[in-house]
Design a protein that fits this description.
By secondary structure, this protein is mainly α. It folds into two domains: about 5-55; about 70-95. Helix content is about 65%, strand content about 0%.
């Protein structure tokens, strides 16, 4: 087994050459005594896309076509911003900084009721 930094370097090199495929990962795992699942995890953690190979990882090709629903992401972000603004407005009305009113496990201040 190689050190982690060498494995990541080899995967990055294969990615830049366009050879990072499931067959390459299988061969690399056999030669170096690594686990295939660990190699896939390293690729995901380091943002290295495993190329599509006919007959292998076909489910990934379908996911890339659909992509992300950007409108849903924007709606969720706007909702979170709206809630945060409400909390900050309530904190300003209370006269204490927002982070002192934030409900935490070890809160130093008790929330004022009403």
């Amino acid at each position: 087994m190689k050190p982690l930094w060498q494995v990541v370097r080899d995967l990055e090199f294969a990615y830049k050459k366009g050879r990072l495929t499931p067959s390459y990962l299988d061969h690399y795992a056999d030669v170096n005594g690594e686990r295939v699942a660990a190699l896939y995890a390293l690729c995901a953690k380091n943002y290295l896309e495993v190329e599509h190979e006919i007959g292998r990882n076909d489910h990934l090709a379908g996911e890339r076509e659909h992509g992300i629903d950007q409108a849903a992401v924007n709606r969720a972000m706007e909702e979170e911003a709206r809630i945060l603004n409400q909390e900050m407005r309530a904190a300003r009305d209370d006269g204490r900084p927002y982070y002192l009113r934030k409900p935490t496990k070890n809160a130093q201040f008790i929330r004022k009721s009403g």
